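Hello,

Following up on my earlier ticket. Below are the two sequence lines again, exactly as submitted.
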Amino acid sequence: MDALIQLDGVRKEFEVRRRAGLLRRERRTVRAVDGLSFEVARGEMVGYIGPNGAGKSTTIKMLTGILVPSGGRLSVAGVDPSRERTRLARRIGVVFGQRTTLWWDLPLRDSYELVRRIYRIARDRYTANLEACVELLDLAELLDVPVRQLSLGQRMRADIAAALLHDPEVLYLDEPTIGLDVVSKAKVREFLRQVNTERATTVLLTTHDLTDIEQLCRRVMVIDHGRLVYDGGLDGLHAVGESERTLVVDFERELPPVNIDGARAVRTEGPRQWLAFPAAASAAPLVAELAARYPLVDLSIREPAIEDVIARMYGGRDEASRLPG
Amino acid sequence: MGVRGGARLYAAVAVRGFRRYATYRVATLAGVFTNTVFGFVVAYTYTALWSVRPRLGGYDLPQAVTFVWLGQGLLMATALLGGGNESELVERIRSGDVAIDLCRPANLQLWWLATDLGRAAFHLVGRGVLPMAAASLVFRLAWPSGVAAWGCFLVSVALGVVVSFAIRYLVALTSFWLLDGAGVLLMAALLATFFSGMVLPLTVFPGWLGTLARALPWSAQLQVPADVFLGRHRGTGVLWALAFQAGWAVVLLGAGQLVQSVATRKVVVQGG
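Thanks for your patience. The regenerated structure is below:
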């Protein structure tokens, strides 16, 4: 595997001071990232999710080199980010959804021209990249508008374009769809898909919107308490999250809750019953047995919502020890 | 990065620094008006003072009045009362937006220096020329004699801006540790107001306080450019004055690089 991003036992500790009495202050060390190891191959698009304060942004800041790890080894494109931040910066693109790299008071075009100079992008390359971004992200009307007049969705698209003009090998996206409406989200996702497939840009995507992940990433990493709690395909999450599918059955008449192997009735409403069974199990034998033993009229299967699966994984956390991160 | 490519980048940053202030024309006009009114008040105060004590600090009356208007003209350019881009940097550190600046392949200090030079260039024209022109209609001012004198003055102002920036940048960096920069910014503005000569020319102060005040870097922001403008240096004296400013610029920018590398390596970048 050609690993572009490699983390090996990476830790990041912060010292926080807390008031403990009138003058006394208590010092405490909090581990925002606690022994993180993973690899991302060139051209992969990986979802990186976790609850607030799990250590997602801290990880991204270490990957860009603006935070120095407290321990462990980390390399991006063969470079130790915090040691060679400036050199690495030429090869990566970063979008922090809640922040902007654009010049607030100036027309959008001015910021892009400056990006060209920052990364010393050849003129023809710049023109081609800008044209592609303008077309795919629908920016043509906005180029001469001061950034302060853009809507949130427009600004986000403009920021994503700014991060891609210099053909970065890696793109870090920290909540690129936060606060966007459905149409803008769809546009951004479609664009990211194209960037990943056509330019083979490696993408690490942090988000709270699991639809982003479902539509874009084959691989997802879940972080909680600064540790990786899951790394694999989206489907595998269901097995790990012990999630259940639901069989909704309509009988000819009202019946007492059915008693059947491998499923349990969780709800009854007149002749309709809801039967939960493990997401990993097949529904066929259940349906066969139901049809054989009960007067069945209709049935349907409901897949578990990925949100519920993740919520179960985040369960049992102590809110008190959270850090912004 | 090659030196030329780097220079071109920072020049482009400076141009944007200029343009973003140029977008706010009404605000600039309001500022010019305030400068001019304030200049008249202080100029008449100085006139009263100098008529009681002629040649105070070695200046005759036209020179003293000119000093006042230079103070108004450079007020924004060399940020004599604070108010450059440092509060913006403090805010970016507090909110964590500085993370974006740090993700660029550029030196943070040179980047902000470039934006501040652009800002200063705009304010030198936008807030400097008009009050000075208005004053020349009413007062007898002491103008530089010849192109060389004007050239020295412009160099001195440029160095004054760099020194002013370097001080304000150091002050802004403290918010990496303090997180709230309002207190130190206010303190820095007070020091600049007094020690630049904005309250009274530093040559007026006798004894060790005067000597100290003239040796401190803030004098590079107004006292030195004003004396160059007024032709108070004879012969190579001008070069010494410019060297004094350049020396402080180098020392303070160097200190800024040092503190910046400690700040960005040791300190938490705020926010998720």
